[in-house]
């Protein structure tokens, strides 16, 4: 059954679509010739090297691999097969194929963790259920008060105009630590520092293909002093950081809980849950791991999506203006909240477009794929979001594409991954991005610092599992005197009434 689906996508584009235009084919003089016949059960792809085991190693660029994968997609079709060290890797470049292979058929994945380097840091498969419970749409809405309060403070800091990215990063750290543990961060916070280090180790460890151990789990048994086994060192350091991340903040949270002083949070919801008994050490181990994963994954991803939103506002001032007009029309006398979302269709479309325009996680890696046995799957999320066959003029920032009955895939269904391994923090991420956009656009105009087209910062993104814009200057200018009043009045507003976060779902 699956092979039928696989075969459905495992053919190249028609001759007219296919740049090489020689399907089925054997020979072209460059390294990207098609090498398989139409009767092959595998999709086509660039020709692997004749040197044993090297495969397509030298065809894969060291940075921004997703762009090369998209070029291959145009050349070979929805699915592209490459080889590394004798191992087959299938790249999915279109939403349609990803839906069929990764979502509809997601039950065929093994539960086996995808990447040993990452899983050294976050072996929490058993704990996924707790995550899903804590961050269901309903439970996430109980954290809205925390996000509101922090953003209200952030607006007043953005008025000073400088170091906007520092202010935003701290605000998101504060949100994540409060939601995760009920913890208020301080200047140069020690827990935030550990979370950042662990996150960095995880991100560099998870760069697809960065470490062969991702493809050959057996390599993890090689001692780290052997030449070429530097991944062992990274994994060891990652394990140490992971341990620190799991123990230090948790010890603080437990002491608060025992004193009866724990604030509503993900941690407290799990501690209060009916599943836990006083002597339940297994459940406590799960809570420790899962809260650590939460603050290691949430802050940087939300930060990246917010930076992309800001960069997009510099590239598409007319979209910014349209969202501001909508906000002024619908809510004029107060700051917007998440409850206003249904009244703000244009802003909703703008946030979707920000998730599509650049991807926080450009590539997803999946293992345990059954057919062909042992194939590693790379979901080229970036390629899917920029596929002109799905989104017209994909490099343009055009929220209008998501207005009315557009029939387009929701970018969230690409940006947050697939099937069983899809992002459990999706609702929190979307809410945090939406509220950031709504509050900042109500109060500020976001503009480039420089003049003219040259003043607009380029769309340059970092590499790694999670990508973000390289730092760029911009200005937040108050839109009108009333905006300052809105900000000042909200600082006095008491958002303390954050609801208890219940277990429930
Ligand atoms: C805009 C922000 C975010 C984006 C775009 C994003 C995207 C993703 C994607 C694509 C995956 C799947 C990775 C894979 O292919 O294996 C993922 C996994 C994950 N995300 Fe997010 N994420 C975001 C925010 C968050 C937040 C706020 C949290 C925590 C509350 C979170 C927690 C996780 C966890 C724990 C996983 C691993 C899930 C598993 O393997 O079962 N993410 N995320």
From TrEMBL:
The UniProt record lists the keyword Metal-binding: yes
Gene3D superfamilies per UniProt: Cytochrome P450
Entry binding sites for heme: 423
GO molecular-function terms, A-Z: heme binding; iron ion binding; monooxygenase activity; oxidoreductase activity, acting on paired donors, with incorporation or reduction of molecular oxygen
Keyword line: Heme, Iron, Metal-binding, Monooxygenase, Oxidoreductase
Keyword hit for Metal-binding: yes
Cofactor: heme
Domain of life: Eukaryota
Pathway it works in: Secondary metabolite biosynthesis
UniProt-listed PANTHER family: P450, PUTATIVE (EUROFUNG)-RELATED (PTHR46300:SF7), P450, PUTATIVE (EUROFUNG)-RELATED-RELATED (PTHR46300)
Protein family (similarity comment): Belongs to the cytochrome P450 family.
Protein name per the record: Cytochrome P450
